[in-house]
Every structure is written in C-alpha cells, then in structure tokens.
Specification:
This protein is mainly beta. It folds into 2 domains: 54 residues, Beta Barrel (OB fold (Dihydrolipoamide Acetyltransferase, E2P)), CATH 2.40.50; 159 residues. Helix content is 4%, strand content 41%. The chain has 1 helix and 17 strands. The strands form 3 sheets. Strands 7, 8, 9, 10, 12, 13, 15 and 16 form an 8-stranded antiparallel β-sheet that branches. It has a 5-stranded mixed barrel with strand order 1-2-3-5-4. It has a 4-stranded antiparallel β-sheet with strand order 6-17-11-14, covered by helices on one side. β7 and β8 form a beta hairpin. The longest helix has 9 residues. The chain starts with a strand and ends with a strand.
C-alpha cells in the first residue's frame, strides 16, 4: 500500500466514485460511503492495488490555485488548421492609365513605353475570420503566362495595405523576392512571409503586389480570369 496523497476533484461525486487529478492525471477514484465530494474539493487518497480510494476531505474548501503534489498542470489545448482564401480580385495598375480593364492578369514591369505596372492581388475580409490565431505558414499558387522573356525572371513581391481595389494606386509596404518562373510554369505552393499573412489576419494589410521601380523585368502572371486557382492563398494557423 502506498502513502496517502492529496488530489483535486474535477467533478461532483457520482454514485460511489469521483473524477480527480491524482499526480496531475485524471483518475476515477472510489469514495468512502459517507463522504461527500464536490468539484474542486481537495481529498486525501490512497492507492490499494490498482484502485485509488478517497477517504477524507482536506481544508474547509478548495484553495485557489491548489497544486497539492506540485504536479504539472494539464497543458491548454492547442487548435490548428488551414484556411484557403481565393482572391476577391486580381488586377494591374499603371499610374498614367489607372487600372487595366482589358484583363485580370497580374503584371510586373513596363513594355513598350505603356507605363510601369503594379500587379495586385486582393484577399478581401476572409483572412480576418482567423482573428486571434497565429499564422505558422502561408503559400500561394502562381502561374506565369506569355509576356516578356521566356526564361525564368526574378520578380519583386510587395505587401499591400488594401484588401479591395482602391480607385487609385495601391499602397505598397514591405518587399520580398517573388516567384521566378519561365513562361508556362506553375508554382503550386510558393511561400510568402508568414508575417504578411499574419497582417492579413490582423487586418493591417490586405493583399500582395508585384512591382519593380525600374520597370524590368516585364512579367505577366495569370489572374483569376485566366486561371481560376490563381493566387489562391493557404494559411496554416494555430491558437
């Protein structure tokens, strides 16, 4: 027979047993016939063979934050998941001409003196549904289509403040290397900075853009009108 321990009831006595934390483990404990036990009570328990028995209550009431045996407390549960977000719009902007209306593709750079593009991808309000979560990974789907040099070209990806298309030029902030793809190539899971996706969740940013102040290289990515999965964002999160 082992020595007596203190345990904390996690429910009221039911029939002849009560559920209690014994050494930090939730355990079904047999209760002495005439002993009343309520949730939160500290009880004196002793093990006989494979079964624990409670034969007395300690203290006048359950003390706050009692940890009788110094045992580790149960860890709070962690929830994880993924959220898939389709852009609410893809579009490209040139300062001299405004937003392109001939297609929904996402351009970077300038061709033939027609103005330097800002290719924009707006994610709307859906990422905000994860408010309070921590982003652990974020990826987009990208396809390059015909325009400019056929070989893979470096692109400059920018964090964009707006979640939906403004009337004028979008607001660009942080920068990161974008996909480098040859014409016709697809990146099914291109990583974007997790801090950017966290900004989408927090509501301090709303999309990504492609822009190089030099206007080169000239690159065209498929927008929603050319390829339905274009720039689909997958956010992995926990809370």
């Amino acid at each position: 027979m082992n020595g007596a321990l203190l345990a904390t009831a996690t429910a009221n006595k039911s029939g002849s047993t009560v559920t209690a934390l014994v050494n930090g483990i939730s355990t079904t404990v047999q209760v002495a016939r005439d002993l009343t036990v309520a949730s939160g009570d500290v009880v004196v328990v002793q093990r006989v063979g494979a079964q624990w028995f409670a034969f007395a209550r300690a203290y006048s009431a359950a003390p706050a934050a009692t940890d009788p045996e110094g045992s580790p407390q149960p860890k709070p549960s962690v929830t994880t998941g993924t959220l898939v977000v389709s852009p609410v719009e893809t579009r490209s902007y040139r300062s001299s001409y405004g937003w392109r209306t001939d297609n929904t593709d996402v351009y970077q750079g300038e061709y033939g003196g027609w103005g330097n593009h800002i290719g924009a991808v707006f994610y709307g309000s859906k990422p905000r549904s994860l408010d309070g979560a921590t982003v652990t990974d974020a990826r987009i789907r990208v396809r390059r289509i015909s325009a400019g040099t056929y070989a893979a070209q470096s692109t400059s990806m920018r964090l964009m403040t707006e979640a939906t298309r403004p009337s004028g030029s979008p607001t660009l902030t942080s920068s990161s290397a974008g996909p480098s793809l040859a014409v016709g190539a697809t990146a099914s899971a291109f990583d974007i900075p997790t801090s950017w996706a966290q900004a989408f969740v927090n509501g301090t940013a709303g999309g990504i853009a492609f822009y190089d102040s030099d206007g080169s290289p000239y690159v065209r990515f498929a927008g929603r009108g050319s390829w339905s999965p274009a720039f689909t964002l997958t956010i992995t999160w926990r809370r």
